[in-house]
Amino acid sequence: MKKLTLIFVIAFSITAHAQWQGSGTKLDPYLIYTCADLELLAENVKTNPVGWSVNKYFILMNDITDSVRTMIGEPNREFSGKFDGQNFTITLAIENNAYVTTMGLFFLRSPLTQDTAVIKNITVDGWVKGQYAGGIAGTTYTVPTDLGTILISNCINAAKISSWTGAGSSVVGGIIGYQFTATVINTTLVENCINIGDIFGMHSGGIVGVSNCIIITNCINYGYVTGTTYAGGILGYGYSLLMAIIQNCVNIGIVDTTPSTLRSGCIVGNKNNEISVQNCWWDKQMCPAEDD
């Protein structure tokens, strides 16, 4: 009898995190309590077919202070579901490796269907290092066959975001490191987000490092932003732009540069006619002048 009891206890401990509570629907979302629960989510996204997470709902139930070292999603196996952090904090300790150069809490892709991938109400702390690094998402992207969009809302980055040693060209941002969209229909929207973490890389932005098609609205940067090539309080660099709108944003942080920095700005690093900056403000004592 004692042997049977021991076997039962061991089996229970192994299977305790085999699945989350909930069924993954809007009314009965999967409940995330621990670092192990997040690791299980990352494993499911990695091992299931592309699009597995579309229209699946996840809710964070408490702060996770154990250092999270696993990104949720990776190239060709991205997260496209809906994750509500309920204003709790996740502590990160995520670093680039030789196989995956994107680092952040999530690697996001637009849903294959006419749906929206949603990340909201999360604070991240700790640190992230990568060639493409961001507190909430290292990379967000869509391909022409994707029909959905991406929304990141009410998120706070308090983590230090920096380039990985030896990464070469690095792209870093407080909320998103690198954002790419194939068509203007698949716009990524970042709204009501805040960065208070230090940001350091080659192309650096307080909210987004590099983008080609994005709307950033009602966001604030308090962090110290340094870019060795491009640096911006909100957006570091916009390239091959389909559309970029930055509206109602504020930068209260320092935007620092090095001798090699090509362009910097209190709102946008490479301000040009393709980037629409509307009703934005910056603290001129912290950041003396915006690029013309």
Largest sheet data: 26 strands, parallel
Q: What letter string, H or E per element, gives the SSE order?
A: HEHEEEEEEEEEEEEEEEEEEEEEEEEE
The oligomeric status of these chains comes to single chain
Unreliable segments (pLDDT under 50, ≥5 consecutive)?
1-17
Measured distance between first and last alpha carbons: 80 Å
Number of helices: 2
Q: What is the strand tally? A: 26
What gross morphology would you assign?
globular
Mean pLDDT: 88
Beta-strand content: over 45%
At CATH level 2, the architecture is 3 Solenoid
CATH fold annotation: Pectate Lyase C-like
Number of separate domains: 1
Which structural class is indicated by helix and strand composition?
A: mainly beta
User: Using only CA atoms, what is the Rg?
Assistant: 19 Å
Would you state the CATH class?
Mainly Beta
Concise structural overview:
This protein has helices at residues 2-15, 35-47, and strands at 30-32, 57-60, 64-68, 82-95, 102-103, 106-109, 116-129, 132-134, 137-141, 149-153, 156-157, 160-162, 171-173, 176-180, 188-191, 194-195, 199-205, 208-217, 220-221, 225-232, 235-247, 250-251, 255-257, 263-265, 275-278, 281-282.
In words, what does this structure look like?
This protein is mainly β and 292 residues long. It has one domain (21-282): Pectate Lyase C-like, CATH 2.160.20. Helices cover 9% and strands 45% of the residues. The protein contains two helices and 26 strands. The chain has helices at 2-15, 35-47; strands at 30-32, 57-60, 64-68, 82-95, 102-103, 106-109, 116-129, 132-134, 137-141, 149-153, 156-157, 160-162, 171-173, 176-180, 188-191, 194-195, 199-205, 208-217, 220-221, 225-232, 235-247, 250-251, 255-257, 263-265, 275-278, 281-282. The chain has a 26-stranded parallel β-sheet that branches. Strand 1 (30-32), helix 2 (35-47) and strand 2 form a beta-alpha-beta unit. It is globular, with a radius of gyration of 19 Å.
